[in-house]
Amino acid sequence: MSTTEYDYEPVPGLPGNLPEGETLLWQGSPQWWTLAKYALRVRIVAAYFIAITLWHSGNVLAAEHSLLAALRAAVLPLALGAAAVGVLALIAWAAARATIYSLTNRRIVIRHGIALPMSLNLPFAQIESAALRRYRDGRGELAIRLPKRQRIGYLLNWPHVRPGHYVQPQAALRALADPAQVAQLLGDALQAANNGSGVRGELEPARTGMIPSHAPAAA
Questions:
Q1: How many CB atoms lie within 10 A of CB 59?
Q2: Is residue 15 reached through a cis peptide bond, with omega within 30 degrees of 0 on the bond before it?
Q3: Phi-psi region of 11 (alpha: psi -120 to 50; beta: other; left: phi over 0)
Q4: Torsion angle of C-alpha atoms 15, 20, 26, 32, degrees rounded to 10
Q5: What's the DSSP call for residue 110?
Q6: C-alpha dist (Å) from residue 137 to 157, 177, 184
Q7: End-to-end alpha carbon distance in the chain
Q8: Residue 205 pLDDT more than 70?
Q9: C-beta separation of 26 from 182 below 8 A
């Protein structure tokens, strides 16, 4: 596993040409608005500023008994809220634009970084388990758990990490348009690698929760 800086991509999303015997199975990028909703929490931020606006305007209305004064009081918090949501949406758009997820028959590669391009290389031999999470809108994410001896930086690789796992961070393919398809491809690739070269990782598609490496293969 490695996190490295690079300036040249012979294959988009990959820091180098694939070695002999390795094939590219899938590439994709996060959906920027889904990334904004679930990684940058724009809806929560918007709801916070709306609540602040209603509270402040209500206080002004109660004190001055003037609807015009209440409307004027709402302008500043609404403007600040719009600016905050706009900045977060812009960050999500830039992060999605700079990110390419790659799946080969041997590894997962996450190329990311808005200002500083980086590559997170996850060989199947180092994948302990994986988990599929679906959102209500049909999008979703795949979290990859590595052995405890293999550590990745949470802040360094955010937002391409599983939320809330700070002590033992897990890499994640986030805001996927068709997570079930990617999970199926990953599950098949892990199973093929497991049968062919002793790779321990395994994933059972279309289920939420971590799948241990010793779990039986999905039917």
A1: 12
A2: no
A3: beta
A4: 0
A5: E
A6: 25, 10, 19
A7: 30
A8: no
A9: yes
Identity of residue 26: W
Q: In terms of pLDDT, which residue wins out, 12 or 206?
A: 12
Residue with tokens 């049909």: 138
Work out the average pLDDT over 141-155. Answer: 90
Length of the chain equals: 219
Residue 204 per-residue DSSP state: -
CA distances from 109 to 11, 27, 121 (A): 12, 9, 5
Q: Is the pTM of this model over 0.90?
A: no
Region 71-90: what's the mean pLDDT? 95
Question: What are the DSSP calls for 140-185, one per residue?
Answer: EEEEEE--TTS---HHHHTTSB-TT--SS--EEEEEESSHHHHHHH
The token pair that represents 52 in the structure block: 């602040």
pLDDT band, residue 1 (cuts 50/70/90):
low
